[in-house]
Write a structure and sequence with these properties.
The chain is mainly alpha-helical and 178 residues long. Helix content is 73%, strand content 7%. Strands 1-2 form a two-stranded antiparallel sheet. A hairpin with a 2-residue loop joins strand 1 and strand 2 (11-17). Helix 1 runs parallel beside helix 5 and helix 4 packs antiparallel against helix 5. The chain is elongated, with a radius of gyration of 19 Å.
Length: 178
Amino acid sequence: MRIHAFQAGTETISGLVCFGSMFKSLGSKIILCSLVCMLLGTASGLLTVTGVTSWYATIQKPSWNPPNWIFGPVWTLLYLLMGASFAMAWHKGGQDGRRMMQLFGVQFFLNLLWSPIFFYFHQVGWALVVIAALWILLFLTILAAGRVRPLAAWFLVPYISWVSFAMLLNATIWWLNR
């Protein structure tokens, strides 16, 4: 970690920690990005926990609906892999890395948006629109990740698999409850 001093107007600001220099290695970037994904995902999930325990318990679901306890472990693993994939793009940089990070940001925003739309606002149809857009952007993110590093793309395959399953579940719940 380096400490910098620079001129800001007429005042000297010393002791400013250069944030970027703290994260030069791929390993440190993977840790940071995975933690950020997990924290944001957890925050989105916490906003909707009452919807899961109340409203969601009362609606019709298919027989193949997974038990509620499975979501925590699955999303923990997915957020770790997503963070690692993003970190690889950050570490590579360049046009390919930036493109993947931009796509990742948009699809991740849709990911975070889906839970409140579905569980808090109970808008199953709109949630289906969001998850379909998420799937398309995630597919494009995987293609972009492949240009960064093939492993970055492979780390997103479990995520798109889960989103595919969730989209089918969302569509089925919409159909059963229309």
